[in-house]
Amino acid sequence: MKHTHIVYEPMNGETLFFCSEEEALKFIKELDHSEGIPEEYVRGDLIIAKITHKSIFKITDEKKNYTDPEEEWPYGDENCVGDIEMDNI
Q1: pLDDT of residue 79
Q2: Which pLDDT belongs to residue 15?
Q3: Can you name the residues that pair with 57 across neighbouring β-strands?
Q4: Could you give the CA distance from residue 89 to residue 72 in angstroms, rounded to a whole number?
Q5: What is the DSSP letter of 79?
Q6: Residues near 76 by Cβ (< 8 Å), separated by ≥ 6?
Q7: In terms of Cα–Cα distance, which of 89, 14, 9, 24 is closest to 51?
Q8: Tens-place pLDDT, residues 16-73
Q9: I want to staple 86 with a disulfide (CB 3.0 to 4.6 A). Which of 11, 13, 53, 59 is the partner?
Q10: Helix (H) or strand (E) holding 10
C-alpha cells in the first residue's frame, strides 16, 4: 500500500509517512503526553498532510548517447540529466 498521508511531529522534527488518514490520527493519539502537552502542539505545529503529488525524474539526455569522440559529454560525472516533474497521485 502506498503512503497517502504525512505527519510532521515538531518535537523531534520528524516527518512520518502513513497509508491512511486513520493511521496518521492513531499515531497522533498515541503520542506520549505524560509530561504535559508541548507548546509546539498548542501552536498547531503538529500536522497531518494529504499527499497529492510526488516528484518524478524525466531523463532528457544520457551519457551513452554521446558516441562521437569529437563530442564531449558536458555534464561531468553524471550518467544522465533530466527534469523534475510533479505527478498527481
Answers
A1: 93
A2: 96
A3: 84
A4: 38
A5: S
A6: none
A7: 89
A8: 999 999 999 999 999 888 889 888 898 999 999 999 999 999 999 999 988 888 888 8
A9: 53
A10: none
CA 40 to chain CA centroid, Å, is 22
C-alpha cell at 3: 503512503
pLDDT digits (tens, 9 = 90+) for 66-88: 888 888 889 989 999 999 999 99
Of 72, 78, 76, 42, the residue nearest 60 (C-alpha): 78
DSSP string, 19-72: SSHHHHHHHHHTS--TT---HHHHTT--EEEE--EEEEEEEEEEGGG---TTS-
Average pLDDT over residues 5-16: 93
pTM for the model: 0.68
Task: Report how far residue 2's alpha carbon sits from residue 82's, in angstroms, rounded to the nearest whole number.
Answer: 25
Output the nine-digit C-alpha cell for 31: 503520542
